[in-house]
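FORM 12-B: Structure-to-Sequence Request
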């Protein structure tokens, strides 16, 4: 049953990325590349500061072993491919799409590098070669993304109707699978304890704060980067979890999915309520 739920989690992630592709155009990819300072801040926030926060939490707190490794796996599994353009309802979404593509490319090198550095330090040696990460991204990210963009190019009217529905269905499936995984392995949550759940919540809150502060002067960029920092690449996280013995780390990943939603949704509502029609510098309402 656990293997089936993990498979459904992967399929739901792929479906969400297909929906993102349906709602995007090739021109959006280069948005972040034309803004090197925003690109630099985004990479530092997602791939340096968030992992360092997780490392600090693991070092300072007394956590169950599974929670330790779960936090580290989630912290280094950046890439945030679950950010749909219309999620924020702020700005035109080009930054979000460009951020998703760019950080996913960087993850091919940076995720194995972080795991190679932190795994042995905490007694969890995980061998994850860049070519394996690249293969995972090719299957679960770039292929459905390209397919979605092809659908939009060939059938734009169908794409406008289908994209949002697919996003909603896949998001619901992702949530249900995570919840079922937690119910199936409820005894793992007893081992996680309150300290583990508080550490998960602390990592998410810290990630939101880091992204919000480093997003720059544009309100929509701050919101997008905050959500990107608190959203992990579940495909990579599940891949690493599958390489570890037992379901413990996979359950931590599922707990993170639900905890992230509980914390991020109020933040998004606050940001939507405070956003003006256009808050990017140099634009007028």
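FORM 12-B RESPONSE
SEQUENCE OUT:
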């Amino acid at each position: 049953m656990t293997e089936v739920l993990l498979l459904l989690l992967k399929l739901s992630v792929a479906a969400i990325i297909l929906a993102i592709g349906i709602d995007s155009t090739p021109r959006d990819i280069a948005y972040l590349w034309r803004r090197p300072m925003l690109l630099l801040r985004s990479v530092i926030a997602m791939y340096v500061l968030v992992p360092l926060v997780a490392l600090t939490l693991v070092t300072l707190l007394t956590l169950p072993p599974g929670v330790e490794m779960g936090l580290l796996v989630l912290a280094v599994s950046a890439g945030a491919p679950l950010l749909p353009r219309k999620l924020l309802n702020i700005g035109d979404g080009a930054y979000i799409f460009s951020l998703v593509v760019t950080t996913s490319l960087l993850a091919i090198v940076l995720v194995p590098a972080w795991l190679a550095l932190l795994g042995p330090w905490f007694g969890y040696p995980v061998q994850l070669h860049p070519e394996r990460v690249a293969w995972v991204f090719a299957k679960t990210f770039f292929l459905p993304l390209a397919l979605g963009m092809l659908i939009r190019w060939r059938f734009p009217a169908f794409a406008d109707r289908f994209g949002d529905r697919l996003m909603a269905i896949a998001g619901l499936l992702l949530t249900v699978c995570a919840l079922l995984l937690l119910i199936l392995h409820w005894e793992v949550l007893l081992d996680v304890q309150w300290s583990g759940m508080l550490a998960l919540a602390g990592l998410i809150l810290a990630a939101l704060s880091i992204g919000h502060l480093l997003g720059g002067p544009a309100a929509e960029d701050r919101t997008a980067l905050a959500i990107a920092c608190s959203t992990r690449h579940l495909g990579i996280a599940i891949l690493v979890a599958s390489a570890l013995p037992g379901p413990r780390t996979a359950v931590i990943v599922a707990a993170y999915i639900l905890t992230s939603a509980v914390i991020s949704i109020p933040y998004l509502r606050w940001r939507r309520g405070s956003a003006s029609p256009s808050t990017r510098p140099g634009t007028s309402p």
